[in-house]
DNA sequence: GTCATTTTGTTACATTTCGTTATATAGTTT
DNA sequence: AAACTATATAACGAAATGTAACAAAATGAC
């Protein structure tokens, strides 16, 4: 990506996007920054500032064209640039992510799942096949996939990560609580649910 | 919470904690900031600075006592202060979270699950019962639970959230992509997987 | 046509946060 | 005692955050 957008802005952009989708469903064509701001409980000038990162699409005294704005957000966040990924671990979390249809509209294509449980192999979930983990290296190369979504139990995480690296996976979206050791050229993105909960809990509860 | 700790620090503290757990499993009693830093690929003085938020427990030229440090992190992040919660939606994601044993050791007790599917009612997952959603208001009051983890499909999210609010739930950990409308006195914490993926994708891929 | 109003787009600003660097201190080892 | 390693704290500059301010533009009222 050429333009570097911070995490907080990215997060807000997805929220704007979600609101825009609602407006489209309701057949509303225009939206203003104060409307969005009050919906999210934030400052309206912040909304406009965020939109400044896209392209100027608003019209004074009128607001923004909902569809146009939605397109700009999608383009900026790269929804169009589809990326293929495998889910490693067909437990509940893996299956939940596989069923999460939304991903594909945001640029993430789940191609298949992998597990070491022979009972699960060859099952299909949401039109995606579950393969035995031993099939991974072959499919990585044949389908040219370099993103893995890791949803195995914690105590297997490192072992599986090593296998992913050996299979030429380059990016790991890590849903396990394990702190993975990987070579420098492999990128790991930790989905830290515990930390997320603690922020939630510490900030707001008691 | 009296001490306000930023999200990034909280996140790092959980990573330190995870590493400390490894050391305990391996029976190692001492750890130094450079060790932790190199494990995570960050600066060692940052590690010490983070630890400064706890209490000074390190000994020069020796390092930190692993167990002591782990306790301090747990106390600071409030692991000891157990919080009870219900999971709303017994789909794959709800079940995955219910099976996620780690939560309880980090202060989050999942008490039960709720769903509107009669077929799922009365099943148990990880010793937690699935109740019909109509039982929620009663159980909220009887068990004094005010945290709900929302894992229902997006198109039901708002309707269910309204029901949670009417049932006296005060905190909602929202795993759906919906932007919820709730009264001011209700706290919502959005687990924005899409935004998380986009940060991952934008920063590192291509 | 004029004027008031609303909304955008941009700039400015004050605050906070971030991660590193630097420094002094303390404990271990040789 | 000297050298080394590790901690604790202060200082620093860079970056990011959210808010406020303001001019320009476009609409609608009169």
Write a concise synopsis of the structure shown:
Chain A is of the alpha/beta class. The first copy, chain A, has nine helices and nine strands. Helix content of chain A is 45%, strand content 18%.
Structural class of chain A: alpha/beta
Q: Any low-confidence stretches of chain A, pLDDT <50, length ≥5?
A: none
CATH fold type of the largest domain in chain A: Rossmann fold
- CATH architecture title of the largest domain in chain A: 3-Layer(aba) Sandwich
Q: Greatest chain-chain interface? A: A-B, 57 and 57 residues
Please report the distance between the alpha carbons of the first and last residues of chain A: 41 Å
Taking all Cα atoms into account, the compactness measure Rg of chain A is 20 Å
Mean pLDDT of chain A, as a whole number? 92
Order of strands, widest sheet of chain A: 5-6-4-3-7-8-9
Largest sheet entry of chain A: 7 strands, mixed
How many individual β-strands of chain A? 9
User: SSE order of chain A, as H and E?
Assistant: HEHHEHEHHEEEHEHEEH
Multimeric state of these chains?
homodimer
Query: Proportion of β residues of chain A?
Result: 15-25%
General shape of chain A: elongated
Helix content of chain A: 40-55%
Total count of helical runs of at least 4 residues of chain A: 9
Number of domains of chain A: 2
CATH superfamily of the largest domain in chain A: NAD(P)-binding Rossmann-like Domain
Q: What is the top-level CATH class of the largest domain in chain A?
A: Alpha Beta
